[in-house]
Amino acid sequence: MGNYSKALEFYEKALQIFEKVLPPNHPSLASFYNNIGAAYYNMGNHSKTLEFYEKALKIREKALLPNHPDWAQSYNNIGGVYNDMGNYSKALEFYEKALKIFEKALPPNHSSLATFYNNIGGVCQNMGNYSKAFEYFEKALQIFEKALLPNHPDLAQPYNNIGGVYCHMGNYSKALEYFEKTLQIFEKALPPNHPLLAASHNNIGGVYCLMGNYSKALEYLKKALQIFEKALLPNHPDLAHSYYIIGGVYCRMGSYLEALEFFEKALKIREKTLPPNHPDLAQSYHII
């Protein structure tokens, strides 16, 4: 697990000093607020993350010229938090603000543009607009494939995203193809207990579940869970998701006691970390 609480402690000590010596709208203060927000994000604390990202944005809007890249960074960060909180319309609003700035500031094949296309595609996917999501993910992939060598770590995300859209559209063989490309890249690029590696195992396990291959699904999902339990704080939302989908496989297999055990673990985390109207929380209550 990244030592995010320790990082937070040092950022806050530094911030106390800078708040005394700098004027209240100094850009360096915005950077510290941003870093503190990122530490809270990595700890799964969305409300505190949003609080500090919004502080950073307020300063940047006062201190920097319109369309400054730092505005876009703040919009993108805030969009990411809203996306994780299930507020997809707000997420889209902030991601599109960020994209407008970068489309003016960057050449058309710049890798940062691809990142924004990925983000907007992700929100469209969460909103159920899969054709629009596919359009943005393809834009991102085209940029990355021109700019990067095969198996470059940055190719993993667009492959993963396209795999997700194929999965939602019911094309499981294509989904598996793209998810396996993602896993191959992550296995070469990341340490063995990295959360992204776990997420990749989760995705492949999920497709096998949808294809009815439950033993193969559990194999991948339990690999993911082992990584998440080592890499994340005990109440992290990604851990809840892992418990939930393992519960789902057991449920499909008719192993209801095992299913209930995992569903309850997921619910316990979601009740602590998600707002009361989050769709994942409703999903947990419904299944139990």
From TrEMBL:
Upper classification of the organism: Eukaryota, Metazoa, Spiralia, Gnathifera, Rotifera
Keywords, ordered alphabetically: Cytoplasm, Cytoskeleton, Microtubule, Motor protein, Repeat, TPR repeat
SMART domains per UniProt: TPR (SM00028)
Protein name: Kinesin light chain
Family recorded in the similarity comment: Belongs to the kinesin light chain family.
Record's subunit section: Oligomeric complex composed of two heavy chains and two light chains.
Pfam families assigned to the protein according to its UniProt record, in alphabetical order: TPR_1, TPR_10, TPR_12
Entry function: Kinesin is a microtubule-associated force-producing protein that play a role in organelle transport.
Keyword check for Ribosomal protein: no
InterPro entries: TPR-like_helical_dom_sf, TPR_rpt
GO cellular component labels: kinesin complex; microtubule
Residue windows of the TPR repeats: 30-63, 72-105, 114-147, 156-189, 198-231, 240-273
Keyword Cell membrane on entry: no
Subcellular localization(s) per the UniProt record: Cytoplasm, Cytoskeleton
